[in-house]
Design goal:
The structure holds 2 protein chains of 2 kinds. By secondary structure, chain A is mainly α. Chain A has helices spanning 4-9, 14-21, 23-56, 76-83, 85-116, 122-130, 137-148, 153-160, 178-203, 207-215, 220-248, 252-258, 267-276, 281-310, 319-338, and strands at residues 59-60, 71-72. In chain A, strands 1-2 form a two-stranded antiparallel sheet. Classes of the chains: A mainly alpha, B mainly alpha. Chains A and B meet through α3, α5, α6, α7 and α8 of A and α1, α4, α5, α6 and α7 of B.
């Protein structure tokens, strides 16, 4: 590294080279080199597209257009998002997925609790339930297209149990239930994975604790309430928060199984269609921004709610309780100083 | 008192097993029916109920048709290349970034961490409308490396896993290595990187499953026939086979088998990885 020639050529560079060799210089080299690739990628594929998205949402653009004059349309795209019935109807569709997500969390919690207590063959049950998570969305789509098709799997099973074939609804065509059928596929796919997550958190509790508790006469409910639940509170809260943005951005089930027809189009399915089939890029961008705003509002709202109610799950004492205690302490101190 | 509890725990035991068996059946039945159907000949498929067993469990014809029709060999190769390269690069860059963010205090550190945090809030599909435009400008569409670069760029989970892991590695390790004359590069590559093994496994599992199953971007950025990945290849079955579910099921199973085999071999690591990935909250 110590090259006398470079030092001789320009004395101005010498302190810089020295600096590079110093600890501080080394530190900055490492910082620069190690962060370069991820930061460039982050800017290029997240923030640049995000900025472009904001810009595009004020224009009327197509993909194929060569860069040149674009039609500036002001807020018209945003107005159209709120005016188009399909956009907002699709938000109502996400309510089904939200319902599904809550059922999925409840089921996962239930089965994880079952597994914490000794179960014979638990690894088999766990494997069976986790397995759907590993199947790709397209394959899940095909499996359930087949499963729900008229006269195929689900219908045959129901008939086997003596259900009248006349009274079986069209699972994917009947608009009153097709969104439930689709949301159910995501429950099927993710329940096992959620269960494994919860189980992992529960297992981190010392096993002796359960034994001690049951020796002390705690029943299963008490064990769940006082040992299991506190250990997984933060991960359950996290998953609840994720489930909102997850259901608002539900995409694969309707896209693959019904292609968004018959009232099953979620927000992203509609957006995808507008962008890539109708070439209304500006409108699609406006939709994306609106959704992002909704997601951020929901996330912040939920975070604040849980922080207020449960103190983010990190402490057993809620914020309200902390405030009450502080007030009491303050009052006590005041009383003390007055006396 | 004692008797009541034993009745309670028997009931609990029954509830436990019944519910677990029921859940496992629900999880398996859709796939099992698929297996039954995949072994049926056209004739059998049309004449029998979907729940009946195929006559011949060695009828691999549908698999052969599905495999050659969708050029699955090619797609497995493509997916394999993408998996290896993306996992390698993103684990390296992700852990390097986490090292810098965790170990060095400098201006902008918090800003950068928040940039990554906020990025994780933006749903991937939302920005693809404009990512497409950028990819188009950079000439990255219809190249396997273009797709790989996008996948590396959307790697936020594993950065979190690494950050959390560094949190638990004592700084005294770095300090003593530096005392011994190690450079920062040396500290990272010789001392810390080997210790990251559990975090590497976790992010390999999470990211690997994600990449193997990724459809949306692969569909957008790899449009020519030779570049199809497993999930886009599978999607081509929608057209020609319409309702020929015996072929479709065979195709579905072909895509499931490799990941199932890997899962059975690395079960423990997969569960461990999932659990470790979860604690980030």
């Amino acid at each position: 590294m110590s090259n006398p020639q470079t030092a001789a050529v320009s004395t101005g560079k010498k302190p810089f080279m020295e600096w590079l060799k110093s600890r501080k210089g080394q530190k900055w080299i490492v910082i620069f080199v190690f962060m370069l690739v991820p930061l460039v990628l982050l800017l290029l594929f997240t923030y640049l597209p995000f900025a472009e998205m904001v810009r595009f949402s004020f224009y009327n653009i197509k993909y194929t257009e060569t860069p040149g004059p674009k039609n500036y349309v002001g807020l018209r795209n945003y107005i159209e998002v709120f005016k188009r019935s399909e956009c907002f109807k699709s938000l109502a569709v996400s309510l089904y997925y939200m319902g599904g997500a809550i059922i999925q969390l409840a089921l996962a919690l239930f089965f994880a609790t079952m597994m914490v207590f000794k179960v014979k063959g638990s690894s088999i049950f766990k494997g069976c339930m986790f397995f759907p998570y590993l199947i790709c969305g397209i394959a899940v789509g095909f499996i359930f297209k087949f499963f729900y098709a008229r006269g195929f799997v689900l219908d045959s099973i129901l008939q086997m149990f003596g259900m009248d074939p006349e009274s079986i609804p069209m699972w994917l065509q009947d608009q009153s239930i097709n969104n439930i059928s689709l949301a159910a596929t995501s429950v099927w796919r993710y329940t096992g994975q959620n269960m494994v997550l919860f189980l992992g958190a529960m297992m981190s509790v010392d096993a002796d604790l359960y034994e001690a508790a049951s020796l002390d006469g705690a029943n299963r409910w008490h064990q769940f309430r006082y040992i299991i639940l506190p250990s997984i509170k933060s991960i359950v809260v996290l998953n609840l928060i994720l489930s909102i943005s997850g259901s608002l951005s539900a995409f694969e089930p309707p896209y693959v199984i019904t292609n968004g027809t018959m009232g099953t189009g979620t927000y992203f399915v509609i957006m995808n269609r507008l962008a890539h089939e109708n070439q209304k890029v500006g409108l699609a961008c406006a939709m994306a921004i609106v959704l992002l705003a909704i997601i951020i509002l929901c996330t912040v709202g939920q975070k604040l709610f849980f922080k207020y109610a449960f103190d983010d799950g990190t402490s057993d004492e809620s914020k309200a309780a902390v405030r009450k205690r502080k007030r009491a302490e303050k009052a006590a101190r005041k009383g003390g100083s007055l006396a | 008192m004692r008797e009541r509890r034993s009745i309670g725990s028997t009931l609990f035991g029954i509830l436990k097993y019944v519910s677990l068996i029921a859940a496992s059946l629900v999880a398996l039945i859709p796939v099992v029916v698929c297996v039954l159907t995949a072994f049926k000949t056209n004739e059998e498929y049309e004449s029998t109920s979907v729940l009946t067993l195929p006559k011949n469990f060695l009828n691999f014809e549908n698999f052969a048709i599905a495999f050659t029709q969708a050029d699955m060999a090619r797609c497995f190769l493509n997916t394999g290349i993408v998996l290896v390269v993306v996992l390698f690069v993103s684990i390296l860059t992700g852990s390097m970034l986490a090292y810098v963010l965790n170990r060095f205090k400098f201006k902008g550190n918090a800003v950068i961490q928040n940039l990554f945090l906020f990025a994780s809030l933006i749903p991937g599909i939302a920005t693809q409308v404009t990512v497409y435009k950028i990819m188009y400008t950079l000439g990255l569409i219809n190249h396997l490396y273009g797709y790989m670069i996008v996948l590396m760029g959307t790697d936020i989970i594993s950065i979190y896993i690494f950050l959390q892991f560094f949190e638990n590695l004592p700084v005294s390790l770095d300090e003593s290595a530096i005392m011994d004359g190690c450079t920062y590069f040396g500290v990272f590559f010789r001392i810390l990187f080997p210790l990251l093994k559990p975090a590497i496994v976790t992010s390999m599992v999470l990211k690997g499953v994600g990449i193997y199953n990724e459809y949306y971007m692969s569909n957008l950025y790899l449009q020519t026939k030779e570049l199809k990945t497993i999930s886009t290849a599978l999607y081509t079955f929608t057209g020609p086979y319409g309702n020929q579910y015996n072929y479709i099921c065979a195709g579905v199973l072909i895509t499931i088998i490799p990941i199932l085999v890997l899962f059975l071999i690395f079960q423990k690591q997969v569960y461990g990885g999932m659990a470790a990935g979860a604690v980030k909250g």
